[in-house]
Every structure is written in structure tokens, then in C-alpha cells.
Amino acid sequence: xxxxxxxxxxxxxxxxxxxxxxxxxxxxxxxxxxxxxxxxxxxxxxxxxxxxxxxxxxxxxxxxxxxxxxxxxxxxxxxxxxxxxxxxxxxxxxxxxxxxxxxxxxxxxxxxxxxxxxxxxxxxxxxxxxxxxxxxxxxxxxxxxxxxxxxxxxxxxxxxxxxxxxxxxxxxxxxxxxxxxxxxxxxxxx
Length: 190
Description:
Mean pLDDT: 91
Strand content: 5-15%
Number of helices: 5
Structural class: alpha+beta
Radius of gyration: 22 Å
Low-confidence stretches: none
Oligomer: single chain
Distance between the termini: 30 Å
Strand order of the largest sheet: 2-1-3
Shape: flat
Order of helices and strands: HEHHEHEEEHEE
Helix content: 25-40%
């Protein structure tokens, strides 16, 4: 990504994330540290295990519903969406993204943020994004140029507004670093 010396780096025992970023020459002028993507194999493994547990739990719920007769008139068409979700959960291979704060000042002043790196860790520092994508229960899914003067409701309006099926209490924003924030009515203007 947007570091001065991109590449693969060997790590030594005790190396922390700041050590690796220093070896890579630091972030270049185009780098957007807030959008850093940090991947770890062990996190991907944990995510995969969670997906498989969820698939098992859904299957057990279906079995309980069928055997106890909780829902009348179940057909294969009723169960098709759930079956597809179970299949997707079993097939999905998560990437193991870990939300991290790689801001140099934070890493130097807060030892808990300057964590140990492991073999196989992957860091990508992107260029600053210049767009906002609006997806979900809006009339027209779109991607618009970022304008710092616009707020969440402005971007939703550019997407034609909310559909009748939208839950306006569950609108959330996925930030460039991977964090997600539920938008509260009081925050709608920020």
C-alpha cells in the first residue's frame, strides 16, 4: 500500500506494529492511515469457526421447528433462504480483518495499541478514499463523491431516500478502518 518501502518484511521476536511500519519507511503522502486494513490468519480462523457454529445453530433451530411443529405448513420454499444462508456460512472464507488504530502518535503514546506482530500478518495502507457508497434499503444503491459538508441524511437522499422496508433506527456507517457505527437520530447531522 501507501508506504515508502512496500514489501514483505521479516519479523523478529518482540517486533511490534510500529517497528514494521518504521521498516517500511513510514506512510507516504498519499497514505490514509485511518483506512488501514490489518489481516491476521488466527482472526480468520476464529471468524470461520464462528460462521460454522452459526450454521450449526441455524440447522438445529430448523430441526427443532420441524420436529416440534412450531410453524405450520413448512415447505421447502419456506426453508430455501435459510438453507442458502447456512451454505454460505459454511463456504465463506473470512479474511481475518482486525480493526486497529495505526496512527503514529497513538502507537507511540498508547502501548496497548502498539501490539506484537505475528508471522503472516498483512497490512495495507490505502490511498485516501474520495467516495461514499450507500447500500441497503434505499431506492437506488449508489456511490457519490465525498463532500465534507454533507451528512448521512444527505447521502441517503442522493440514493433516493429510504424504502418503506428500511428500519431507520438501524442505519449504520462502516468507516474506512472497518469499524461500524449505528447512526442515532441526534447524530444524523454529523
